[in-house]
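Residues pack. One example:


***
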Amino acid sequence: MSERAKHGAAALTGLVLGLLALGPGLARGFLLSYDMVFVPRQPLNALTFGLTGTLPRHVPSDAFAALLSTVLPGDLVQKAVLLLIFVLGCAGAAALVPTPRLLPRLAAGICYVWNPYVAERLVLGHWALLLGYASLPWAVAAAGRLATRQAVRALVPAAIGGFAAMAVAGLPTIAVAGFAPGRRRRAVAGIALGVVGLCLPWLVTGWLRPSGVPGAPSAVDAFAPRADTPFGTLGSLLLTGGVWNAEVVPKGYGSGLLVLCWALVVIASLAAFAGRMRRDRPDWAAGLVVSAAVGFLIAAFGVVGAPALKRLIEFWSGFAVIRDGQQYTAPLVLVIAIGLGLAADVLLRLVRPREEGKADWTTGLVGFVVAVLPLVLMPGLADGAAGRLRPVGYPDGWDAARKIVHADRVPGDVLVLPWATYRGYPWNGGRTSLDALPRYLDRRVVTRDAVVVGSTTVPAEDPVARGLDPAVASGGPLVPALKAAGVRYVALDAETGAGSAQRARLAGAETVLDTPDLVLYRIPDPARTSEPKAPLIPAALSWIVMVSLIVWSFVTPGTSVTRHIPRTPRRGRYP
């Protein structure tokens, strides 16, 4: 089988795994789960580009989704993106295994996209982060060869994902380039500058945000890794899990014989990786190992060094980016996946028939069993994450509200009640999801973006929300305060328990829509207010730089996708 055919087989395997993972979720409708929110047609507005008071975590992923939704229905855009994660991740990890055999490569690819890390982040709705995760193997391969253009090209999915995606893919890419044999300063600097250039849209709007970058030390405890196996928090991180939200742990994972077997698989994979890499030492190996070790230490820091991390955040709020440390274990997952492929390769050598043409079925069976081990040991990712990902349609009242708001020429924001950023819509099966109205409507939508995790409340980051919080929380009449703050509409989620108490507080506002799902109030003559925003010109320039980098990486001779996939090594070395 040719190299191209093997790459195609790995990509096809990833597609099959994506279909298996999403299952019923592939039907028409939207998958709304925690932070994953897609809408029928997302508008391009100030929120999309990070020019409101909220932190630009959604930049540029929202712009990507909005642009695609102009040519495809939003739910199809969502399914295509999720399937792409499985295809890219599986094919990229498979290509890094130094063997001509197909089954060991597929074992690595399957392990990379079918593990607790992917399952937990998928249910948590971190599709943008997973875009970076899927691009990591490709970027590692390019950075190991110090191929700047190919590295930038490989990081395009991560650039689309934004902050978290570039954190898990861009930083390891720089590390791999920095530790590559025969490293050339110019090439390493080029890759580092490329990574920074791809980050500019959210870097500029985040750091030039008038209200600064908030960092709440109290959030360290809320977002610290937690044990989801009997092996404690550090053991859970080593097994590629340990996410802070206990509700997103795959069903059936974390106890019993399956997790014990998974632990043995991880240990064997790490041993196989260490043994083979000491001998072959591919160009990317040292940087990937360093990235995996540093990522694990960052994740562990939130557990063993929580007081120190809190003090660091008090000193400089930028350290808040490592609160959710479990996400930085992505390079470790890649090491484990490659190690499983190497272990499968060793087993195939051991059972290789001594006589030509005999016992071929034994070799194939052993390779197949190793390859499908991740699926057997973690069935909770299949069937739409065991029922957690089910497609739903937005109620008719939402579309009616969008038309009313869009047709109004009087400026003003939209405030959403109940005063919380997450919802458990009955029409979404009661599953927790981020409020979708900020992406559904083409106006500035204000929600209370404080996050409650157990007994910890992470303070709101949006200055407009913070300013309105005393009035909304007071229990008194709302219209005078909202009118003074420039709020034109109040959207009341009728099915989320708001009830008559909230309606009574809106005396003086006109009811312009009243449906079982959504009630919309219009406030007459709101005050004209001006929200401080990130400077427009630097933000526009940042987009120009990022788009130019992407175009530069593709518009070059020899832009075939397979050119930056490592070929099968000869004489134990990568080319």
Q: What stands out?
A: The two ends are 20 Å apart (CA to CA). The chain is about 55% helix and 5% strand. Confidence is low (pLDDT under 50) at residues 558-575. Residues 140 and 173 are 6 Å apart (CA to CA).
